[in-house]
Amino acid sequence: MGSMNNQNAMELFEGQALLYMQLQGHLRTTCLKWAVQLGIPDIIQNHSKPITLSNLVSTLQIPPSKACFVQRFMRFLAHNGIFDIHERQEDHEPTYALTSASKLLVSGSDHCLSPMVLLKTDQLLTSTFHQLGEWTRGEDATLYETAFGTNIWEFFEKTPAYFSLFNEAMASDSLKLNLALKNCTSVFEGLDSMVDVGGGTGTTARIICDAFPKLKCVVFDLPHVVANLLGTNHLSFIGGDMFNSIPQADAVLLKWILHNWNDENCIKILEKCRDSISSKGNKGKVIIIDAVINEKLDDPDVTQAKLGLDIIMSAMNGKERSEKEWKQVFMEAGFKHYKIFPIFGFRSLIELYA
């Protein structure tokens, strides 16, 4: 009986630890925002070697009384893989170095994701998730309608500061594309024209145009998004609505677009894509860059990232999809063949043919 009671107690304490870890999950993002706002990745990068706690505190120009908090925040971030932490042999003072994650937060680099951190940790945007219960019980289609009285796209259109924040975050994410292009050149080779649907300010299209100078690319987005944007000989901007029509091209690119929408709207978008490439016969295709959930084969951290994104997308009435779910959408939109290339970290490139 005693051993059974001990086992039950142990299970309860393990459950308690798990619950407290979940309850404190928001501290991962708030401490990450703290590091970005204080410019700590830049400070370590500019130091050219691991930086001591005393040097970090001095560079930050904060009161000496706050030094202990810097040490504790950095310990927490290091435990979560954002920084490396070691003790200096001569005096055991902590030293900090960048990891593969914090290297993505160095300002001015080609792969800086700090704008994405600021978007995802914005106090107003994250506060909407405190209304998940109210939204689930109510009739609003999206969480943002419950929180703001309007959907997220109308909210961005009415608040220029947030629209700018969103565009900067999306542009920072698109800069990773050039890292993957070398592994998928065959996807773009042989194309004469491409439409980047929902391409925003054109960061993705510019990267592709630079890599494939003969390719003519159109960035197609809402009129207020592309207004006053300047193109080049091979890059142009057109305003419109993807639910009405999409300009004709050899290929249509949908980067991080379809996960914003439910299946019904995804099918409508893909049908317009099919119309766009229909005159190209076998040459025409749709190129999708989005997540493909695979809980059995993916690394647990990758699965966590994908499932977390699925929660975010649910607030917009969108979703992340498994291959089975993608296939269902493709078939209903009139496409017969597809190929999946898992080469974008937690996202994949999907080639789709009619």
TrEMBL record:
**Keyword set includes Kinase:** no
Q: Which GO terms describe its molecular function?
A: O-methyltransferase activity; protein dimerization activity; S-adenosylmethionine-dependent methyltransferase activity
Q: What sections of the sequence does the record tag as coiled-coil? A: none
| Biological process according to GO | methylation
Which InterPro entries does the protein's record reference? Answer: COMT-like (IPR016461), COMT_C (IPR001077), COMT_dimerisation (IPR012967), SAM-dependent_MTases_sf (IPR029063), WH-like_DNA-bd_sf (IPR036388), WH_DNA-bd_sf (IPR036390)
What region holds the O-methyltransferase dimerisation domain?
23-107
Give the record's keywords alphabetically. Methyltransferase, S-adenosyl-L-methionine, Transferase
Domain (O-methyltransferase C-terminal) ranges: 129-336
List the active-site residues: H259
In its UniProt entry, what is this protein called? Uncharacterized protein
